[in-house]
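re: that chain from earlier
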Amino acid sequence: MLVKHIVKQGLLLKNAGALSRAAYHGGHGPHSTMNDLPVPAGDWKEQNSQKNAKYNAALITGILVLAGTIGFVKSSGLIHFNYYVPKSLD
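^ sequence. v structure.
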């Protein structure tokens, strides 16, 4: 039913032009130059330290969650970490 609707409305033919190479590459638009690039502004050291503080907080949070998960799994007995060679069944 969906295929009949698509064929009936001509949606495939309407959208075929949008998928062509010329439309994909934007046709004949203005070309980018070096003047279109963003200009750095502000103190890079301050911005870098703010970003690093955020990244370090995410790193510490991840490490704490990992340690908590390993501790929970170890204490619950769901997984045995096989620290030692298993005893023989004999």
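Residues 44-76 form the longest helix (33 residues).
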